[in-house]
Design goal:
The protein is of the alpha+beta class. It is built from two helices and eight strands; from the N terminus they run E-E-H-E-E-E-E-H-E-E. The mean pLDDT is 95.
C-alpha cells in the first residue's frame, strides 16, 4: 500500500452529524452544501468524518459527519434549523493514502489501510476519528476519476 505517516495540524470545520449507514451520508452532504451555498461559506475542502468501524458497529449505530473546512477567519453563524457545529478535527500523527475511483469502493481501501497500520507499521489507531478529503467534485467528475485522500489517526 502506498501510504505515509504525516503530522497533521488541526483543521477547523463546520459539520453536520449523521447516524446510520455510511451509504446514506450523501443526503447530509446535500444539506450541508445547501447551507454553504446560501451563506457564501469560503470552503477550503470537503471532508467526511467516520467515527466507527462498520466491521464492529451495527449499521444503525454508525456515526459520521459531513464537513467543510473553513478558514480561521470565518465568522460562523447558523441561521437554520440544521444542527451545525463549528469545531476542529484533531491534529496529530495520521497515516494517509490516496484512492482514485468510485466512493462505493472505499470500504475495502479502509480495511487495507487498517491492516497496513496495524500489521506493517505496527502502530495503534487512536481514538480520534478517521476522515476522508474529497479532492474533486463528485457532481462534475466521473466516478472512476474521483480522488479521495484517506486519513487514519495513529498514536
Amino acid at each position: 500500500m502506498n501510504a505515509q505517516v504525516i503530522q497533521q495540524p488541526p483543521i477547523r470545520i463546520v459539520m453536520l452529524r449523521h447516524t446510520g449507514s455510511y451509504d446514506d451520508v450523501g443526503a447530509v452532504f446535500n444539506q450541508l452544501w445547501t447551507w454553504v451555498t446560501a451563506n457564501n461559506v469560503p470552503v477550503q475542502k470537503t471532508i467526511g468524518i467516520y467515527y466507527d468501524n462498520p466491521d464492529y458497529v451495527a449499521t444503525a449505530q454508525l456515526r459520521s459527519a459531513a464537513c467543510v473546512e473553513v478558514p480561521d477567519s470565518f465568522q460562523f453563524s447558523n441561521n437554520t434549523v440544521l444542527p451545525l457545529e463549528d469545531t476542529q478535527i484533531a491534529g496529530g500523527p495520521y497515516v494517509t493514502t490516496r484512492f482514485v475511483g468510485p466512493y462505493e469502493q472505499l470500504a475495502p481501501i479502509w480495511s487495507q489501510l487498517t491492516r497496513y497500520v496495524e500489521n506493517d507499521l505496527r502502530r495503534t489507531i487512536s481514538d480520534n476519528p478517521a476522515y476522508e478529503v474529497y479532492v474533486n467534485d463528485a457532481s462534475e467528475t466521473p466516478p472512476n476519476q474521483l480522488i479521495t485522500d484517506l486519513y487514519m489517526p495513529i498514536v
